[in-house]
Specification:
Blueprint (H helix, E strand, L loop, with lengths): L2 E4 L5 E3 L17 E4 L1 H16 L4 H15 L2 H5 L1 H20 L2 H33 L5 H26 L9 H29 L5
Antiparallel strand pairs: 1-2, 1-3
């Protein structure tokens, strides 16, 4: 049985032809290469050639960071902060708007600030994983994930800056309050979309 490997995510397909679309990362058929016995030998030769060159301390550090990010799954760990805290913060904002509990609004503000502080780690580890594990491929899945991450960051900054400029934006009834809450809901959808795309990369299109 012939084997085909996706050059984007490493998925291996067995069959006479590669699939029209990778079930893991949605890369098209052209991104698959056939795995042959010669490939393993070439890989061993390339590894031996790399090991013969003595790397500098800076080079070792540069190689180590992406390796640690992938080995210990630092990106999935980092994204748990926005994935879990953002929905909670938005619920707190809605509680404040409906029931008038200002303490919930304060808790929401601190939660959003914490997520913002965490965002550089999320973006950096995500970028490194995208480059190292998926070769920076711009398939539809990655485009959606990048767009959702951009909307997340912009919405987050908008909410925090807006709250600093207008401290009573949520506690005082106004048309601006509902626009503020709409941006907050947009933030939840963006975070959820980015998380869903990440889940597709990990689990593919599994039915069970």
């Amino acid at each position: 049985m012939r084997k085909w490997e996706c050059t984007v995510c490493g998925y291996v397909h067995e069959g006479d032809e590669p699939p029209d679309e990778c079930p893991v990362c949605s890369a098209d058929k052209s991104m698959f290469v056939e795995i042959t016995g010669d490939d393993a030998a070439k890989e061993q030769m390339a590894t031996a050639a790399q090991s013969s060159v003595k790397p500098t301390s800076l080079t070792r550090l540069y190689r180590k960071v992406p390796e640690l990010i992938n080995k210990y799954h630092l990106h999935p760990i980092a994204v748990h902060a926005p994935n879990g805290i953002v929905p909670m913060a938005v619920v707190f904002l809605l509680i404040t708007a409906v029931f008038g509990f200002p303490l919930f609004e304060t808790a929401a503000l601190y939660s959003l600030v914490f997520v913002l502080i965490n965002m550089p780690l999320v973006l950096f580890t995500g970028y490194e994983m995208w480059q190292q594990r998926y070769q920076g491929a711009l398939t539809t899945l990655f485009k959606i994930k990048l767009a959702a991450s951009t909307v997340t960051l912009i919405s987050l900054l908008t909410l925090i800056i807006w709250r600093m400029v207008v401290p009573d934006i949520v506690t005082t009834p106004s048309s601006g309050r509902w626009l503020y809450l709409a941006v907050a809901l947009l933030l939840v959808m963006a975070v959820g979309t980015a998380g869903h795309m990440g889940g597709k990369l990990v689990f593919g299109n599994r039915k069970n």
